[in-house]
Design brief:
heterodimer, A: alpha/beta, 9-stranded mixed sheet, 6 helices, 28% helix, B: alpha/beta, 7-stranded parallel sheet, 5-stranded parallel sheet, 9 helices, 27% helix, disordered N terminus
Chain lengths: 265, 347
């Protein structure tokens, strides 16, 4: 079985700087990690490989430092990786990102199964996985919480949806996006780390994947970030401070009165 | 993949919302979207159209879409569309978009909306913005301004789609109230019958298994008692559970509680979990990270209990109690015990 996992490197902390001109994130010089939700996709891929045999390739788009994320995935148990990296890819929205990744996957010769995390913790869109499936004309199963069964030709999965679960099945090839519930990601082994160090991560630019220059990066993105601001929310309610035991009863009484006023009690 | 030329922007008009069917009727989010759509359509001087893709959709629900703001309904009703499958849904939506050219298409940021909209927008190269909390029309350009939280809710980004059409967005369920019914309001229902060539699906639907957990789900609860990092440990939720049971409410939790494993993910409130809109939200030991506040801002009433007087949660509270939840909640539980003898909780 040939498996591809699409991952993203994201900033580790919430202290993110934005470029005031392009409105996109400044990624250089930051401590970066594999998007935590992609770890579930990687773990799922490794478990399926352990069961059925085959290879797992990692694909990612990002700055050169994202090679580190790919090596971490290899250290967990994946086989090889490719990074789509070029200035021209920069500033891409989810459409241009999905387009670029779809070209990389085509150059890899496609796969029986492509896995993505539910969304990345920085952009929080969850749009690249479904977009990728559409561009590769693959059947798509989103929000997979469990792989019920998998053979060389067939996948049955459980989707976690509002109020319940859906069992669906598909003939491979297919693309699935997975959620946290699917598996607990493993840590890389020492042997894995050594293997990852020696493995080659290919770096591909626009010409390597025959990208249309008008469809990549900021230029190829239908959407534009026009403004970044810090949210302010306020209701200007009343506030009571409990200083001692005596205030406790008063505070609790105020809560009861409040609930009565608002017709909740 | 096909790339459409979207250059003639005058071709694109009307605002569309995507209704969702749940079981044998429309999901309430279908009506909620109309509130967003109505103000956009009014600002653009265009019609508001609801797209309904489903099976045996009750006439009564279609009428309700009209009474709550839709001028027109595109109805695709077919037994094969009983369950959501991305390929037929996407093919139908794309077919309708290419036939009728809506300027704006909005859907709920549900598992359905967040699957079908990216699939369609990728195919037709439309601009799509996920999980918006604010939608408005820019005065001078008439473009859709889409505001959404990013980076864990630490920032709000406003995004627009200058050239590509349609301008598409998913919006958080329960991020606005359902618009009032206007009995007698008139609208047009257009049935699209010639869809059999669009119904193939490589993914096969097999079964839906509803959750049967006894406790109320936070999305539907009228009262939510939520705990945060201040709860300190899983056992700390016992008091919150007790209060919730007393008030007939559901238990919620902030992200740190779920990350620590004190509570399960379905109870997580905030942008990374569920956006909620209860009549009363009681936040216990929750400091109020932006991503949490953004998930509760449409709650009718908010009570916050926290030891830190500077906690951001107090900014959003109608009633703030600066103090320790472990001191206050037992007193409150006792008081309610006595009160409940003469009052019957609502909802």
């Amino acid at each position: 079985m040939k498996i591809i996992v699409s991952i993203k490197q994201v900033p580790e902390t919430s202290k993110v700087k934005m470029d005031p001109i392009s409105g996109t994130m400044i990624r250089t010089g930051m401590e970066s990690i594999i998007n935590p939700l992609d770890l579930y996709a990687i773990e799922t891929a490794i478990r399926l490989k352990e069961k059925l045999g085959g290879t797992i390739s990692i694909i990612s788009m990002g700055p050169l430092q994202a090679v580190k994320a790919i090596r971490e995935a290899i250290a967990m148990g994946c086989d090889d990786g490719v990074l789509l990296c070029d200035k021209a890819f920069g500033g891409a929205d989810t459409w241009a990102t999905a387009y670029t990744l779809s070209l990389g996957i085509q150059k890899l010769g496609g796969a029986d199964l492509i896995l993505c995390g539910e969304r990345a913790t920085d952009g929080d869109t969850g749009q690249v996985g479904p977009g990728l499936a559409a561009m590769l004309d693959l059947p798509l199963i989103t929000y997979v919480g469990k792989v019920e069964s998998l053979t060389a030709e067939y996948l049955q999965a459980e989707r976690l949806v509002e109020g319940g679960r859906e069992i669906v099945s598909v003939k491979l090839p297919a693309l699935i996006t997975v959620v946290k519930e699917i598996a607990v990601p493993r840590l890389p082994t020492l042997r894995g780390i050594l293997r990852a160090k020696e493995s080659t991560v290919n770096i591909w630019g626009p010409t390597d994947v025959s990208a249309d220059p008008n469809l990549i990066g900021l230029k190829g993105s239908p959407t534009r970030v026009v403004r970044i601001h810090h949210p302010q929310v306020t209701r200007k309610g009343e506030c009571i401070t409990v200083k001692g035991q005596a205030d406790l009863d008063q505070a609790a009484q105020r809560i009861v009165d409040f609930m009565k006023q608002r017709n909740i009690l | 993949m096909t790339s459409t030329t979207n250059s003639d922007q005058n071709l694109w008009k009307d605002v569309w919302t995507l209704a969702e069917q749940k079981g044998d009727k429309l999901h309430p989010v279908s009506y909620e979207l109309l509130g967003r759509g109505r103000s956009l359509a009014d600002a653009r001087g265009s019609r508001l159209c609801a797209v309904v893709i489903g099976c045996w959709v009750p006439q009564h629900d279609l009428q309700e879409l009209i009474e709550r703001g839709a001028d027109c309904i595109y109805l695709v009703d077919n037994p094969d569309l009983k369950n959501f499958l991305v390929e037929p849904y996407a093919r139908i939506l794309r077919f309708l978009i290419e036939k009728y050219h809506p300027e704006i298409v909005i859907a709920a940021a549900t598992t359905t909306g967040r699957t079908v909209l990216p699939y369609v927008s990728a195919q037709i190269r439309a601009g799509l913005t996920a999980d918006c909390t604010g939608l408005e029309i820019e005065n001078d350009t008439g473009l859709l301004l889409q505001t959404r939280p990013a980076i864990g809710g630490n920032i709000l980004a406003t995004i627009k789609t200058p050239d590509a059409r349609p301008q598409m967005a998913t919006v958080r369920p329960k991020s606005t109230r359902i618009p009032e019914k206007q009995p007698g309001r008139m609208g047009e229902i257009i049935r699209i019958d010639s869809v059999t060539h669009l119904l193939d699906s490589r993914v096969k639907f097999e079964q839906y298994i509803p959750d049967v957990s006894g406790c109320a789900s936070i999305e539907d609860a009228d009262i939510i008692i939520a705990g945060g990092a201040g709860v300190n440990k899983a056992e700390g939720f016992a008091l919150i559970e007790k209060l919730a049971a007393q008030l007939g409410g559901a238990v919620g939790a902030s992200r740190p509680c779920v990350d620590h494993g004190w509570q399960a993910y379905p109870r997580q409130v905030g942008l990374s979990g569920k956006t909620v809109s209860p009549r009363l939200y009681i936040a216990c030991g929750i400091s109020g990270a932006i991503q949490h506040l953004a998930g509760i801002q449409t709650a009718e009433s908010i009570i916050a209990i926290n030891t830190d007087p500077n906690a951001p949660i107090f900014q959003l509270a109608d009633l703030g109690i600066v103090g320790n939840m472990f001191d206050i909640l037992p007193v409150l539980v006792d008081k309610l015990e006595n009160t409940s003898r003469d009052h019957i909780p609502v909802g």
